[in-house]
Amino acid sequence: MSLLRDEKACDMIRKLVSHPPYSEYISVFYEDEIESLQIYQHKGRKIIDSVRTKQGCIVPCLVLVQATGVMSNTSICKPSGLKVGIQGGILVNEHYECQSDRVNIPRHSLFAVGDAIEFPLTHPNHSQYTTIWRNWTSSREQAQDCALHSVRPVLCGKDMRSSTHRLVFSQTLRLFELYVACLGVYESDDSLDASYIWGDNQLWLMKLQFHEEKAGDEQTLHRLAGALVLGNTVKHYHIGNHLLQLIKNRCRFSQETRDQLVGNIEKFNFAHCLKELHEDDAFLERIPDPAPVRKFKNPLLKKKKKKAVKTSDQTVKKENQAEEKKHAEAVDNVTREIESKLTI
Asked: Does residue 175 sit in the same domain as residue 272?
């Protein structure tokens, strides 16, 4: 849950685990912690029977697994005079150079990568904050970026190391029945920067984080800096891959293009709803705002009923099958068109 760093996404997971089938074997407690253990003796051995939380809840258990998370190893910092960040990690800059107050330590002599480091966020409104990525795959990419920065030569009097791009955070995982993609910088909940796109509140959510930048002609452009994608199909995972490429390439959009990108993803969500509805009529009841989908579906239903009065059952069946096939092809075409636009 801490990886999501977004209240709407966390609320989505809470709702998911509070309903069957997960609620049948999973109970989640929030803003609570273990206060004491209930232990009894059996043949000279201490066995845990239950735990009591600070809010007074008794939870029976046969096995207790208590996890505290990852703690950065900063034992090298004190004797070396290196700075430790507010979250307990080795403090580095955007090129993974360790920070120190000692004048006898050269600027480019000590580097650190991996989940032990703490570095500043890229969001302009949060430049005073630092973060730690608890993701082992980042270590390899950070080391590669660090090496490129440390050996890149000076070209025509310009230090080319300054052109090294900062690593873009990316992590994808499968959480219960959801595909989750955490990309770039998406921590801010500033409504001026973030665009939320909702689908079924238990199956689909996307957050796009844009940063405003000034172009040479003083035009304001919007750079896609981060995204958070949660969805129940592998297509949502693929959308995450497309967005990651836009983030890595530091793509900047005009206001019109940005709105078009958001609109295309909303259309994808709409097409996804139509596909689900084509297979399951009850899906309509689970959509927060079913009106647009119902408006699209109703003409087909009326057309079928009208034909049913004038023709035989066999003819109606064939015509209905043709309409359903035509409807499914239309949805597929919309989905393919939107996916192609997402690869800009």
From this structure: yes
- 154 and 160 Cβ atoms separated by less than 8 Å: yes
Q: Which domain holds residue 322?
A: 170-344
Which stretch of DSSP H or E encloses residue 273? helix 255-279
**What is the distance between the alpha carbons of residues 80 and 158, in angstroms, rounded to a whole number?**
31
**Token code pair at residue 127:** 């430049």
* Residues 309 and 341 occupy one common structural domain: yes
131 and 52 in one domain? no
Count of domains in the chain?
3
User: Phi/psi zone of residue 342: left (φ > 0), alpha (ψ -120 to 50 degrees), beta?
Assistant: alpha
* pLDDT, the chain, mean: 71
pTM above 0.70, yes or no: no
More confidently predicted of 2 and 260: 260
Tens-digit pLDDT profile for residues 168-196: 667 777 888 788 888 887 776 554 455 66
Beta strand pairing call for 90-91 and 117-120: parallel
Quick one: pLDDT at residue 299?
A: 43
Mean pLDDT in residue range 100-129: 69
Closest Cα partner for 185 from 105, 127, 272, 269?
A: 127
Domain boundary among 122, 139, 163: 163
Quick one: what percent of the chain has pLDDT higher than 90?
3
User: 3-class DSSP state for residue 152?
Assistant: coil
On whether both 256 and 206 belong to a single domain, the answer is yes
Question: Per-residue pLDDT averaged across 204-232, rounded?
Answer: 83
- What one-character-per-residue DSSP string does 9-51 give? HHHHHHHHHTSTTGGGT-----S--EEEEEEEEETTEEEEEEE
pLDDT of amino acid 201: 47
**CB under 8 Å to 206, separation ≥6 — which residues?**
196, 197, 227, 228, 229, 230, 231, 239, 265, 269
